Each structure stands twice: as C-alpha cells, then as structure tokens.
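quick one before i forget lol
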Amino acid sequence: MAGESLLIIDDDDFMRELLTESLSESGYETSAAETGTEGLERLNHRPFHVAIVDLSLPDMDGMQVVDHLATESPDTQIIILTGYPSLETAIDALRGGAQDYLIKPFKVPEIVAAVSRALNNHHLQSEVKTLRQKVHDLEQEVQQLRASGPASPTPAGRTVPPTGVYGSSPFQQRPSPESEPSRDETR
C-alpha cells in the first residue's frame, strides 16, 4: 500500500471526509476534490493510481471526468460512486473505463475492497506493460541476431546457439524417424 495514491472527487463534504479518513487509515495516500474541475486540475499535477468519482458533481457530469481520465490518464483505475443508480449509468461507466460501480450508501469495507481490486488491476496492467516491452526488446534482439548471421556475439556478449528448432538447441531436437529403433528391433 505504501505510495499508492487515490483521488477522491465528491461534492458531498461528509462523503469526501469519510472516504479520505477511511482510506488514509487503510494506508493509502489520499487527495480530495469537491468538483470535477478541481479533481482534473489535481490530476494534471500528478498521477493517481485510483480515482473515486461521484457521478453527480456540481460543475460537470461524473461521466465527463471518467472520459477525461480514460483518455488523459489511462493507467488510473476508476471507481464510480452514485446515489442515483441505474442500469444505464452502470453500463456507461463500465464501458467508459470504470473498474467498479458502487451505490451510496455503502459500507467502508466495500470501498476498501473496491480500492484493493482496482490497485490489483493497476499492478497487473503495469506488469503486462513491462512484459510486453521485454518481449518487444527480445524480438528486436532476435532480428538483429538473424541479420548478423549465426555465432555472432549479441549485445549481451552471448553467442547465438547453433541453428536448430526455434528456441532450442540441436541437442533438444527430437530424433528423426530413421534414427529411432523399429519396434521389431526392440523386441
């Protein structure tokens, strides 16, 4: 939990204080905003792991905040809060990039669990991005090795293994059918 930052955007003073206090006590770094504009301004100054957004804000619709987050801060996980739930808003929020949709009033353990799920998703997405970059880098290295020919030193100082089945050495190849003993010879 150390260093995981949450942005809370809710115009209800009580709700904002409850979320800030409860999530801070759970070990998260929180920042609260009363309006969508204030929340987006905070987002422009620093990244957040999770944004908790009320759908009913005084200056803009919460879905406008979700749309902005989805395009301008795609790594930020979004949790929607609403006191006026409908199937349509839930579908729109989830399609718009929200990770979770909670209905007010909710219990504090519910929001803590939602934040935990969102952070887990954030970590998994970061790991996938890192692994994709590693695969890309390895593909580039393989292309360089193929272009330079066999047994050439690689950037890491290794030599290319003798040619064989992709990803294996000749010693790991299956024997050809001619070299295998026939059934008659084994009896």
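fyi The chain is about 45% helix and 15% strand.
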